[in-house]
Amino acid sequence: MPTVSQITSDPGLETHLFWQRYKTTIIAVVAILVLTGIGFAAYQFYDARRASNATEMLAAAGTAEQYQQVIERYPGSEPAASAMLLLAAQLRTKKNYSEANVTLHKFIDQYPKHALITTAWMGVAANLESLGKSDEAFSTYQRLATEHPQSFNAPLALLAEVPFLKAKEKPEEARKVCETIITQYRDSIVAGEAMREMMALSKLVGPPPAAPSAPTAAPIPMARPPEETPVPAASASP
Fold first, then answer.
1. How far apart are CA 139 and CA 229, in angstroms?
2. How many other C-beta atoms are found inside a 10 Å radius of the C-beta of residue 77?
């Protein structure tokens, strides 16, 4: 007669006993995994469908109301971000500068890492300038150039500072800004304009000071050879 140890050492029997004991737990875990997979796939499908619908809606939009519908119906999406920028541009065209800045600040708050974040800041500064808020506009341009030096908008912001500095009768500072554009952003589309501005400013303040040259040593005077003392001629003997 087989012993108990011989019975329980049968792999098939052990598997059967394990299944009978834990089948409820196993079925529950498998069901959770399946449902999780189905849910993730469904979310991906929903997200892709939502993005597609938002893109189609944005493509068909053309009025401020339609852009606002995209923003409200698909918050946080890329089409909603684009709709904000387009809405702000349309408000600026209608000279609604304050409303345009409200929209741009919402964009900046909701999409701080967006690829067009500096474009939004440029819009804010331009609207402030149009509202006659020169100091705020100037500081916004400065902030953009300082905080986003690698942005394609950085040289544009620097060039926008020049008229403010000229208006404040600070041509030397304006020229330094132009020099920064030419040296750090020589491949920018505004480098040529910065060069023209700098040449015009040079006529007002003169050429930049030349670097001081190293002092040259004074020539050492050569010593004169000692003069020979003439030897008196011997007198003739009588």
1. 84
2. 19
Please report which confidence band the pLDDT of residue 43 belongs to, taking 50, 70 and 90 as the band edges. Answer: very low
Tokens of 123: 């819009």
* Cα-based distances in Å from 155 to 38, 160, 182, 193: 50, 9, 9, 11
- % of the chain residues with pLDDT over 90: 58
Q: How confident is the model at residue 92 (pLDDT cuts 50, 70, 90)?
A: very high
How far apart are alpha carbons 157 and 121 in whole angstroms?
10
Give the dihedral sign, CA 22/24/25/28.
positive
Residue pair 55/47 in contact by the 8 Å Cβ criterion? no
User: Domains of the chain: which residue ranges?
Assistant: 22-94, 115-206
Q: Cα angle at 185 between 180 and 187, to 5 degrees?
A: 145
Residue 85, number of CB atoms within 10 A of its CB: 19
Whether pTM > 0.85 for this model: the answer is no
CA distance 23 to 19: 5
Contacts of 159 (CB under 8 A, 6+ apart): 177, 178, 181, 190, 193, 194, 197
Cα three-residue angle 17-23-26, rounded to 5 degrees:
130
Greatest Cα pair distance in the chain: 171
Q: Which value, to the nearest 10 degrees, does the dihedral of the CA atoms of residues 84, 89, 93, 97 take? A: 70
Residue-wise pLDDT tens digits, 149-199: 999 999 999 999 999 999 999 999 999 999 999 999 999 889 999 999 999
Q: Is 115-206 a CATH 1.25.40.10 domain?
A: yes
